[in-house]
C-alpha cells in the first residue's frame, strides 16, 4: 500500500489505493487474470493519467480524475422501474450492468440461437477461461492508453458476445450500462467494463452499447472494447452515450477486420461531463470495410473528444468516416481522425468528414484530420467544416409561422440528419432527436409522417432527385 | 385590413422608404411596380419582419394590430405570408415537415388542435395536384436543388396550404417561363376571395395579365407616386417610368 501510494506519477494514487484495498475481491481470479491485473496496475502506475503534454490528450485534461477518491460498486441492485425509464424500448437480447456490475434480474437473453453466446464476462471467465484468456486484451494490449492499463487492473464485468459462423442474428444485442445517482459523502463510483465481440465467418449481428446515468450520477466509467471479426462477418455497433452530466466516460475500442468483413460504428453521444472515445480499426484483408459514423452534441460545459484511427494494412480496403458535432453554451468538442495507409496498401479508399455546428459564441471545437499515406495508388479525401445555423433559414421558417425555438430545433436536427438517416433502429433515432432538438412540439420523426411518406411511395428516408415536378 | 402610414425605412443607414402610404382592404389585389431600387421589395420584407430593416417612423397596422410589435412568426400566424423572391434552400428539412409544422402552428394560434394525419394528407394531395407537383417532392429538402420555377411553385404551394389573409408576393414571376407562370398565377388566383387580399411586387406587366389587380401603385424613390387601376400597367409598359418622374418632380 505504502509502496503504491508513493508512486511518482501523479494521479495514480487514488486508483492504486482502491486496488490494494480490494485484494480480497479479486482473490478468486484464475492465475492468468491475477497476472494481468498486476501488469495492468503496474503499467498504469508507470504511466499515470495522461497529461496535456501528450499530443493525443492535448485538448482533453484528465488530471482532475487523479484528485478524487474511488470505490468499486458492491451491488448492482436497481428498481426495474428505473431501468425501464432509462432503457431504450427495443426488441433485443439484453444484458444489464449497474455501476459496472451484472444485474441478472434485469437481463434477458432468452431465445438465443445455439450458435450464439451472450454472457456477462464474469460467467465467461469461469466457463470459457481458455477462450477469454486468449482474447481479452489481444487487440488493446495494456499499452494502448493508460486507461486500458487501468481497466486491465480492475476488469471484472462486461459483455461477451460470440456469434458462430454464418449465423445471422435476428435481433440486436442490447448491452445497457446504468449509473446510479451518487450517494453523498461516498467516493466516486468507478467501473471498468468490457465489451468483447467475436463474430465467426459470415456471421451478422447488431450490438447496441448504451451508457446512461440517473441524474445525479457522478460515475467514472472506463470502458474497453474489442471487436474481432472473421472473414465476411458484418457488425453494426451502435454506441449511445447518455451519461449524466456529472459523469466521466472514457472508452477505448479496437476492431480487427480480416478479408470481406464489414464494421460499422454509429457513435452517438449526448451525455457525460467529460467523454473520450478512442476508436481503432485495423483493416487487415482485401475488401474489408469500416464505416465510422458519429454525432456528438454538447451543451453547458460538456467536453466530448473522439479520436479515431483507421489502419489500412492491406490493399483494397475501404473506410468512410463521417462525424458531426453540435456544440452549445460553453461545450467543447474534439475530433481527431487519423487514417494511416501502410506501404503498398494500394487501391484503398479512405474518406473522412467532420462537420460542426456551433450554437453559441463560447462553444469550441478542435478538429484535425490526419492522413498518412505510404502507397501511391489510393483514393483519399478528408474535409472539415464549422459553422453556425443559417439565419436566413431560421427566418424562412419563422416567416411560415414556426416559432423560433422550433425553427432552430428543426435546423439543428437537419444538420444531424445525415448521421440519423438510415440509422436502422428507430428507438435510438428518437432518443437523439429528443436530446438534440429539445422542445419540438412533436417528434421530428413523426410516425404519421413516416407513414405518409411510405404511402406516398417515397419510403421513410427516400430522397427523390429527378422528375419531382410534372 | 392593412394600413401603412408615412412609413420610413432605412437599410444600413440609407433611407429606402421615405413616407409610404398604402391601404389594402379585404378582397383586393394590389400590385406595386416601379424601377429598380425604388424600394419595392423593402415594403413586403418589412411587413414580414425580415432583419436588417430599420423603421425610423410611420406605422403598419393589420386588422387593427401594430405589426411592428409582432414577432415574425406571429405575423405569419395572423395571416401575413411573404412569398420570397429568392426562396431559401433549407437542407435536411423536408417539405412535408415544414408544411405540417407551419400548418399546426397556425392552427394552434387559431385555437384548433393539430391537424389529423388523414386530413393533412388529403389536403396536401389536393394542393400538390393543383400546383402540378409530384408527391415525391414532399420528401425533398425545402428548395434544395430546385430550379427557379420549382421554388416559386413551392412558395405558392405553402400559401395554398396555409391560406394567408394577406399574401405578399415578391417578384413571384421572376425566372418563370410562361407555363410555370400560368400555374403560379392559377395558384394565386385560387387564393382570392372576399376575405383575403394580395400584395404583389413586380417589374412586369406580364404577371398582371394572369393575376389581374384591383389597384396598381407606382413606387419611385421610396414613395408611391401614382395609383390607378389595371390600365396603369399598360401605360407603364408603353411609356416606362420617366414620365412619372417628370410629372412628380
UniProtKB/TrEMBL annotation, chain B:
It comes from the Bacteria. Residues 2-246 form the ABC transporter domain. The keyword ATP-binding applies. Keywords: ATP-binding, Nucleotide-binding. The keyword ATP-binding applies. It holds the Pfam family ABC_tran. Signal peptide: none annotated. GO terms for molecular function: ATP binding; ATP hydrolysis activity. Coiled coil: none annotated. Belongs to the ABC transporter superfamily. Ycf16 family. This is Fe-S cluster assembly ATPase SufC. It comes from Cobetia amphilecti. The gene is sufC.
Amino acid at each position: 500500500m505504502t509502496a503504491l501510494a508513493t508512486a511518482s506519477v501523479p494521479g495514480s494514487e487514488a486508483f492504486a489505493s482502491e486496488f490494494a484495498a480490494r485484494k480480497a475481491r479479486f482473490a478468486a481470479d484464475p492465475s492468468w487474470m491475477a497476472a494481468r491485473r498486476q501488469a495492468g496496475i503496474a503499467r498504469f502506475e508507470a504511466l499515470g493519467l495522461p497529461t496535456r503534454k501528450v499530443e493525443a490528450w492535448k485538448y482533453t485534461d484528465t488530471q482532475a480524475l487523479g484528485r478524487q477518491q474511488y470505490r468499486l460498486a458492491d451491488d448492482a441492485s436497481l428498481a426495474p422501474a428505473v431501468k425501464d425509464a432509462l432503457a431504450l424500448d427495443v426488441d433485443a437480447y439484453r444484458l444489464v450492468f449497474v455501476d459496472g456490475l451484472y444485474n441478472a434480474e434485469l437481463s434477458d437473453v432468452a431465445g438465443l440461437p445455439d450458435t450464439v453466446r451472450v454472457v456477462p464476462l464474469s460467467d465467461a471467465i469461469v466457463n470459457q477461461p481458455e477462450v477469454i484468456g486468449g482474447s481479452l486484451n489481444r487487440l488493446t494490449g495494456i499499452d494502448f492508453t493508460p486507461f486500458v492499463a487501468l481497466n486491465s487492473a480492475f476488469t471484472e464485468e462486461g459483455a461477451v458476445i460470440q456469434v458462430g459462423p454464418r449465423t445471422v442474428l435476428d435481433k440486436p444485442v442490447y448491452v445497457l450500462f446504468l449509473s446510479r445517482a451518487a450517494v453523498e459523502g461516498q467516493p466516486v463510483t468507478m467501473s471498468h467494463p468490457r465489451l468483447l465481440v467475436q463474430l465467426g465467418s459470415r456471421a451478422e449481428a447488431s450490438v447496441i452499447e448504451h451508457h446512461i446515468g440517473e441524474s445525479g450520477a457522478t460515475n467514472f466509467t472506463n470502458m474497453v472494447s474489442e471487436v474481432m471479426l472473421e472473414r465476411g462477418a458484418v457488425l453494426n455497433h451502435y454506441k449511445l452515450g447518455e451519461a449524466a452530466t456529472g459523469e466521466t466516460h472514457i472508452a477505448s475500442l479496437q476492431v480487427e477486420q480480416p478479408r470481406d468483413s464489414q464494421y460499422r460504428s454509429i457513435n452517438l453521444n449526448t451525455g457525460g461531463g467529460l467523454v473520450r472515445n478512442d476508436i481503432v480499426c485495423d483493416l487487415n484483408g482485401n475488401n474489408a470495410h469500416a464505416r465510422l459514423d458519429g454525432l456528438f452534441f454538447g451543451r453547458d460545459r460538456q467536453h466530448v473528444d473522439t479520436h479515431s484511427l483507421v489502419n489500412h494494412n492491406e490493399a483494397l480496403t475501404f473506410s468512410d468516416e463521417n462525424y458531426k458535432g453540435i456544440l452549445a453554451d460553453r461545450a467543447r468538442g474534439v475530433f481527431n481522425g487519423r487514417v494511416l495507409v501502410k506501404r503498398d496498401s494500394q487501391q484503398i479508399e479512405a474518406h473522412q468528414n467532420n462537420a460542426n455546428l456551433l450554437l453559441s459564441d463560447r462553444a469550441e471545437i478542435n478538429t484535425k484530420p490526419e492522413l498518412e499515406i505510404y502507397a501511391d495508388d489510393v483514393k483519399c479525401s478528408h474535409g472539415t467544416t464549422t459553422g453556425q445555423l443559417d439565419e436566413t433559414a431560421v427566418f424562412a421558417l419563422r416567416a411560415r409561422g414556426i416559432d423560433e425555438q422550433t425553427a432552430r430545433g428543426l435546423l439543428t436536427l437537419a444538420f444531424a440528419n445525415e448521421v440519423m438517416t438510415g440509422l436502422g433502429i428507430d428507438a435510438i433515432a428518437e432518443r437523439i432527436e429528443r436530446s438534440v432538438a429539445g422542445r419540438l412540439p412533436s417528434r421530428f420523426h413523426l410516425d404519421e409522417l413516416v407513414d405518409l411518406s411510405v404511402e406516398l411511395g417515397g419510403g421513410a428516408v427516400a430522397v427523390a432527385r429527378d422528375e419531382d415536378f410534372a | 385590413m392593412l394600413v401603412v402610414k408615412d412609413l420610413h425605412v432605412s437599410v444600413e443607414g440609407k433611407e429606402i422608404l421615405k413616407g409610404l402610404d398604402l391601404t389594402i382592404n379585404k378582397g383586393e389585389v394590389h400590385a406595386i411596380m416601379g424601377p429598380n431600387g425604388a424600394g419595392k421589395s423593402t415594403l413586403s420584407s418589412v411587413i414580414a419582419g425580415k432583419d436588417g430593416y430599420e423603421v425610423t417612423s410611420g406605422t403598419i397596422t393589420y386588422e387593427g394590430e401594430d405589426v411592428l410589435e409582432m414577432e415574425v412568426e406571429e405575423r405569419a400566424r395572423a395571416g401575413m405570408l411573404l412569398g420570397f423572391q429568392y426562396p431559401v434552400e433549407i437542407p435536411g428539412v423536408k417539405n412535408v415537415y415544414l408544411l405540417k409544422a407551419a400548418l399546426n402552428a397556425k392552427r394552434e394560434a387559431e385555437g384548433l388542435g393539430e391537424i389529423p394525419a388523414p386530413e393533412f394528407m388529403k389536403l396536401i394531395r389536393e394542393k400538390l395536384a393543383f400546383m402540378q407537383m409530384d408527391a415525391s417532392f414532399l420528401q425533398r429538402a425545402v428548395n434544395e436543388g430546385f430550379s427557379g420555377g420549382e421554388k416559386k411553385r413551392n412558395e405558392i404551394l405553402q400559401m395554398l396550404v396555409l391560406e394567408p389573409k394577406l399574401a405578399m408576393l415578391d417578384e413571384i414571376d421572376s425566372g418563370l417561363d410562361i407555363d410555370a407562370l400560368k400555374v403560379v398565377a392559377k395558384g394565386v388566383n385560387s387564393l382570392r376571395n372576399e376575405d383575403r387580399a394580395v400584395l404583389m411586387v413586380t417589374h412586369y406587366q406580364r404577371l398582371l395579365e394572369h393575376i389581374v389587380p384591383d389597384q396598381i401603385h407606382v413606387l419611385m424613390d421610396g414613395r408611391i407616386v401614382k395609383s390607378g387601376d389595371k390600365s396603369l400597367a399598360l401605360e407603364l409598359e408603353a411609356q416606362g417610368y420617366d414620365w412619372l418622374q417628370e410629372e412628380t418632380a
